[in-house]
Amino acid sequence: MAALNHTGVSHTVFHLLGIPGLEDQHMWISIPFFISYTIALLGNSLLICIILTKRSLCEPMYLFLCMLAGADLVLSTCTVPQTLAIFWLRAGEISLDRCITQVFFLSSTFISESGILLVMAFDRYIAICYPLRYTTILTHALIGKIGVTIFLRSYSTILPIVFLLKRLNFCWSNILPNTACEHIVLAHVSCDDIRVNIWYGFFVLMSTLVIDVVLIFISYVLILRAVFCIPTRDARHKALNTCGAHICVIILFYAPGIFSVLTQRFGHNISPHIHVLLAIVYILAPPMLNPIIYGVKTKQIRDQVVRVFFRKQK
């Protein structure tokens, strides 16, 4: 499908190129993507099943982890099956409505994950600073309300982007040099003024992800201050160890995303395929590695996973 010049007709069907410049390598690139997606599906599904079926894992920490695993499943499934279809079948055609729907779910799920990581930092703060009141503060009712608030925040923040994209006329080109529809990528092929889209995208970034990062940082400053006031070394080590998995997941979630945003903003000399690969990494890496990190770092989950596979072997 060839790109069309400005004709005054707004396109309703677009063509996703995949990874521009590496079209000949799509089949080989698809192998690690398929393996990573399979690990993400199996790992997060197993994590959710174990947490929901084991009474010993009904603590707030594990319920928040269950939310994170669910968000990981949605985040990876929003894009990876379509990416594999492009790689294997060259099925890059996508309607405008489906494209905007993908933008909505991809962006809102990303913000939801950020919110879940924030409340998990708050959870660790309560567990370490107020251990005797931990379960009385974080009741199941409060956890439910927190979960609803996280998803309402993400959906209400991203919903205006749907209308901002709907108002645009896409008459410059119907070619999207990407594996998935993203807000600014789609807006850039419009022939209308997209300054409102750009500024609203900046507002979303600052009002959600940036605030979340700042609050997570403040939470861990308070946690570290409380930990270093603990008199015994073993107790300090145990308290820090409970935060280890969460810190790894935070770095894994935010670092690729921040690096991708910086390269898009300032890396004008970087090849387009590098931008696309970075975007895929920050969507696929956290869902794949989060269950592994929590499985390795958290003894209770590790023990339950061993029991599941041991029982199957018997």
From TrEMBL:
<feature type="transmembrane region" description="Helical">
    <location>
        <begin position="27"/>
        <end position="50"/>
    </location>
</feature>
<dbReference type="InterPro" id="IPR050402">
    <property type="entry name" value="OR51/52/56-like"/>
</dbReference>
<dbReference type="GO" id="GO:0004930">
    <property type="term" value="F:G protein-coupled receptor activity"/>
</dbReference>
<dbReference type="Pfam" id="PF13853">
    <property type="entry name" value="7tm_4"/>
</dbReference>
<keyword id="KW-0807">Transducer</keyword>
<keyword id="KW-0812">Transmembrane</keyword>
<keyword id="KW-0552">Olfaction</keyword>
<feature type="transmembrane region" description="Helical">
    <location>
        <begin position="142"/>
        <end position="165"/>
    </location>
</feature>
<feature type="transmembrane region" description="Helical">
    <location>
        <begin position="62"/>
        <end position="88"/>
    </location>
</feature>
<dbReference type="GO" id="GO:0005886">
    <property type="term" value="C:plasma membrane"/>
</dbReference>
<comment type="function">
    <text>Odorant receptor.</text>
</comment>
<feature type="transmembrane region" description="Helical">
    <location>
        <begin position="239"/>
        <end position="262"/>
    </location>
</feature>
<dbReference type="InterPro" id="IPR000276">
    <property type="entry name" value="GPCR_Rhodpsn"/>
</dbReference>
<keyword id="KW-1133">Transmembrane helix</keyword>
<keyword id="KW-0716">Sensory transduction</keyword>
<comment type="function">
    <text>Putative odorant or sperm cell receptor.</text>
</comment>
<protein>
    <recommendedName>
        <fullName>Olfactory receptor</fullName>
    </recommendedName>
</protein>
<feature type="domain" description="G-protein coupled receptors family 1 profile">
    <location>
        <begin position="43"/>
        <end position="294"/>
    </location>
</feature>
<feature type="transmembrane region" description="Helical">
    <location>
        <begin position="100"/>
        <end position="122"/>
    </location>
</feature>
<keyword id="KW-0675">Receptor</keyword>
<keyword id="KW-0472">Membrane</keyword>
<dbReference type="InterPro" id="IPR017452">
    <property type="entry name" value="GPCR_Rhodpsn_7TM"/>
</dbReference>
<comment type="similarity">
    <text>Belongs to the G-protein coupled receptor 1 family.</text>
</comment>
<keyword id="KW-0297">G-protein coupled receptor</keyword>
<keyword id="KW-1003">Cell membrane</keyword>
<dbReference type="InterPro" id="IPR000725">
    <property type="entry name" value="Olfact_rcpt"/>
</dbReference>
<dbReference type="GO" id="GO:0004984">
    <property type="term" value="F:olfactory receptor activity"/>
</dbReference>
<feature type="transmembrane region" description="Helical">
    <location>
        <begin position="198"/>
        <end position="227"/>
    </location>
</feature>
<feature type="transmembrane region" description="Helical">
    <location>
        <begin position="274"/>
        <end position="294"/>
    </location>
</feature>
